[in-house]
Structure formats: structure tokens, C-alpha cells
Amino acid sequence: MRTILRQRPLRLVFIANTVSMLGSGINMAGVTWYILQTTGSEMALGTLVVLQTLPAILLLPFAGVIIDREDRRRLVMLLDLFRCAAILVVAVLAFRGQAQLWQIYLMAMLVGAGFWMFWPTITALIQELTPDTEFVHANTFLLAAVQGGWLMAGAVVGFIYNHVGLGGVLLIDAVTYVVSFLCYFAVRRGRVVVRPPESQPASAEGAFARFLHELREGVTFLQNRPHVVLLGVSWALFIGAMLTQGVITAPLGDRVLHAGAVGYGWLNAGWAIGAFTSAWYAPVVIRALASRRAVGVSMTLLAASLFLLPYSRWLAVAVALYALMGTGRGIGGVAISSSMMEVVPRHFMGRVQNTFFFFGTCLQLALGFIVGAVAHRVGLTWAFAIVGFVYLVAALTAVWPVAVPRAQPESTPAD
Fold it and tell me: What is the spatial distance between Cα 167 and Cα 88, in angstroms, rounded to a whole number?
């Protein structure tokens, strides 16, 4: 732990993520609640999830190559500025009373594009900055930063939204992106790109041909590596299920618990509390169970909580279940990310993880429509069960027996 804290670049990355996730949590909760109250339809929330996912379908197959060939710090900074600008425009419209639903949807698409490019980039950047023996601790600190910001957002969003409305919520998020940008700016100087360890002969092929070659390299790497593929499938299922929960969380707080925006904020806070506190014991659990078994147990915990949530009639019970889910998210997320960092070379990290992020977004695209339609036309109980079942499949793929090699080749940063 002290090794991580002594490294100034990692400290700045974690501060940036704490501040950024505070704004993102407030934004997500505020926009979700605004759409639900404006339209009264879970289908509209499903549409929001789908629109946030669509850019990823176009970006992710190719973004991995960009992440692996460019300076990851500079990419993150550009993504922060891009998302800040999109959010600020809609914030101004909301303050003037001119914001329309299609504009909010468009903002969600642009921010979603930045989101799906940001997370593979920041994961690869942290792998690049972290000593090989400290991957679990680095991911634990990232979890603490992300969920710490989410925890603060969940604790205040219901109260803030009731006082400042959609415009104020979006303005807060835009400011946090500026702070995040400044933190990444101070991480290091100059352009740094991770290169393969072996010397690469100069190639006479064109830029597009090289791009396709690097894209194929990422796919080729996964061949004959079932341990990486199964872990990645579990990651994709985890991502798809987790990001679909927004479709059913707000209706649970409004129509089952009758707790309004404040209750919705408490549910988000419960999730964040569980995830944030798990940062303190996730390394112990992962070491005791081993990474894959820890993923399986955490995914099962998420599934069981989702099956029970529609029957929770009191806010305190629902918040406790969301805290358990946050714990599962924390342990499972750290275990998956750390395992990927251990088995995937640095110069392949962008392409490999984007392969699974792509399948996760495709799943989310389908789940967003299905869960929204089921919640609106059939009932929340079945909608929760669908997401829970996806987590169960993620648990199965994580623990499926497969041989894991002990070591992978390293990569070196180059200017």
C-alpha cells in the first residue's frame, strides 16, 4: 500500500478519479431522475442506456489500437475536455429553461463515447504506472477513488437536485472535469508511449495497413489463451449488467419504496458505501480466495441481491442490499482488473480489454431495451431477475477451470 501512496503520479490519478466520479455520479443520478420524472417511463431510461452505449459499438473495436500507440495520459486529458464541453452546453440550456429531451440524449451519447474511451485508457495508464507486484493494491486504490466520489455523489445528489435542478447538477460535473484535467496534466511531462520489448523493424506499409495489422495483433493474442478469454467474458457480462442497473434503480426508489429523489440518492449511496469500504479488505479476500474464485463469489453476491431487491419494502433494507452489491462490485472489479493486468502485456492492454468492453457494450445495448421494456410492461421483479441472471453467468465463466500460465512478457515505455 505504501509503495502506491509514495508515487506522485498514482496519487494524482486517484485524486482526479475521486473528483471526476463525484461529478459523474451527480450527473448520472440527476439526468436519470430528470428523465424519469419528465417521461414517467422506464422505457425512456432504457433508451438513455442504449444511447450511452451506441458510440462504444463504433469506437471500441478501433480505440484499443489508439490507446496502445498513443500517450495514455494525453488521451485522458482530451477526453476530460471533450466531456466537459458537451455537459457545459446542456447545463447552460437547462439554466435558461431551454433544455429538451433530445438534447439530453445527445449529451448522454457524447459523454458515453468519452466514457467508453476513458476507462480502457485509464486502466492501461494505471498498469503502465504501477510496479508489477502492486496491481491489486493499485486497482484497490482506484476503486476507493472512484467509489469515494460516487459515495459523496450518492449522499448529496438527492438534496442537490431538489435545490439546483438539472442545470446545477450538470455545472458541478463540468467543473469536476476541469479539476481532473489539471491533475492528469501534472502526472508527468512529455509524450510517453508503451512499446513492445522486442525491437520492431521499420515498416513500409501505410498508416491504415499498420492500423489493421495492430488490430489483428490484439485478436491474435487471445487465440489459444482461454484463461484470458473466460476472464474477459466475465468482465464483459459484469460491465453489461452493472451499467444496466440504472434502468431499474430509479423506478425501485420511486414506485416500490416511494422515496423520491432522496431515496434514489440513498440507493446510490448504499452501492458506493459497499464498494468504497470493500477497498480496505478486497486485497485480503482476493488473496484468500484467489482472483477467479473471488470474482465468482462477488458475482454471485450481486445476483442474489438483485433477486431480493424487488421484495424489499423498506428503504433501509434496499440500501443494505445495495451496499452488499457494492461490496461485490468492489471485490469483483479489483479481482478482474488485477488479473487482466497480470496476464496481458502492457503493449496489448488497450486492444485486449477493448475487445471485451465491446462485447460488454453490445450486451448493455440489448439489456437496456429488454430490461426497460420488461420493467415497464411486465414488472420490476422480472427486470431485476434478468440482470441478476447475467451476473450468475459472469460467476460461472470466472470460475470455469482453465490453466493459467505463470508469466507474460513485459513492455517498456518509450518517448
Answer: 9
Percent of the chain with pLDDT over 70: 85
Identify the residue with better confidence: 330 or 143: 330
Chain centroid to CA 228: 19
pLDDT single digits (tens) 241-276: 987 887 888 788 877 888 776 787 788 778 878 888
pTM beyond 0.85: the answer is no
CA–chain centroid gap for 131, Å, is: 23
HSE of 310 in the Cβ direction (CA atoms, 13 Å)? Answer: 15
DSSP state of 193: E
Whose cell is 488485477? That residue is 338
Q: Which of 270, 274, 306 is nearest to 393 (CA)?
A: 306
Q: Which residue has the cell 434514489?
A: 264
Decide: 273 and 358 in contact? Cβ < 8 Å.
no
pLDDT tens digits, 376-395: 888 889 999 999 999 999 99
Q: How far apart are the first and last CA of the chain?
A: 29
CB 153 within 8 A of CB 145: no
| Nine cell digits for residue 365 | 445495448
Assign residue 243 a region (left: φ > 0; alpha: ψ between -120 and 50; beta: otherwise). alpha
Cell of 195: 512499446
Instruction: Judge whether 363 and 240 are in contact, CB under 8 Å.
Output: yes
Find cell 449522499 and name the residue: 155
